[in-house]
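It would be a great kindness if you could assist me with a short task in structural biology. The matter concerns a single protein, recorded as an amino acid sequence and a row of backbone structure tokens. The record follows directly beneath this note:
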Amino acid sequence: MSLLERVAAALAPHGLVERGGFAPVSADGVPPLVGGAETRTLVLVGDVGGRMWSAFSEARPTLPPAHPLDAWTRRILDGVAQRLGAVPLYPFGGPPHLPFQRWAQRAEPVTPSPIGILIHPEFGLWHAYRGGLAFADAHELPPRRDAPSPCSTCRDRPCLTACPVGAFGETGYDVPACVRHVTGGAGADCRSGGCLARRACPVGREHANGPDQAAFHMTAFLAARRSA
């Protein structure tokens, strides 16, 4: 069984999936392992189409009220890493934050969308990276799959026009305008169903988050902005 197959098997009961891997070089910014050893293989772990939501929801009563998804992720990946002889890495817990978006583009055919979120050719904007598994040994990995960005052939780019307050544009993401709208009286749809710009993307709509998951992530986003 290959490394990716073993990782996938360990993650499957929790609704998480392996998101590809690569052999890091110094420019990738992968931190050294215990004792200063280099990471020779890095496998990313994530969620696609909300597969992990059921497992997370079932465990939620046992999790702390603050940052429950991060706590659940650590619980799962710490155990998986121990069984596989890896060191777990996480995109949260900073600053400083590890460059997971850069790593994702090394591991999979994902590219930045017009609204900044990495877009996947199959899952669209409905995927996430929850962590990574760093291995001291060099493992043979399949070559990175190449696929063009769906955005390159999207003429209308509805993601840039769906936001009621125009928070996404050529100059970037206007976070204060977004937060004001979402927390105001007119933002109920965003609060309950998630970002309208993200929902406007035609790619991978069948993998979109359900209402409970969408509301959870929006609540977490607003909480993070209040504490920033």
